[in-house]
Amino acid sequence: MVVHLLVSLRKKILTLYKNNLPVKSWPVAVGAPNSSTPTGVYRIKNKIINPGGSPYGILGSRWMGLTIPGGNYGIHGTNNPASIGLEVSKGCIRMHNKDIEELFPQVPLWSRVIITKD
To answer: Which of 9, 92, 100, 113 is catalytic?
Structure first.
């Protein structure tokens, strides 16, 4: 099964695709105007449970690192659920912890992540 993710920066939605069919979408927070999330096609390069040692830290309960050059970008949980749906991160894609915990086991390492302005 081929898995990929599509992130719409304008809609602030992340969609999981399996075999090119949309399976489920979740709301996300994206980069603030002065630290926007880079658009392009990337891959999941690592996956960490409880990054920072605690599910209650700034990165939440899960981290999936992205192959975006020039920085440490990822899809991760948050300890600030009110930020979801906003442009507030330093370029990362934030999700509610319950949502990334649902998504995390479904995304193999090296899965494609397509980030669009749309």
So the answer is: 92
**Would residue 96 show up in a list of annotated catalytic residues for this protein?**
no
The one catalytic residue in 4, 76, 94, 96 is 76
Range 3-116: architecture per CATH: Beta Barrel (2.40)
Low-confidence stretches of the chain (pLDDT beneath 70): none
Nearest to 77 by CA among 69, 87, 89, 67: 89
Cα separation, 105 vs 85, whole angstroms: 23
Nearest Cα to Cα of residue 87 among 16, 34, 43: 34
Structural domain spans, the chain? 3-116
What pLDDT is stored for residue 27 in this prediction? 98
pLDDT tens-digit map of 85-117: 999 999 999 999 999 999 999 999 999 999 999
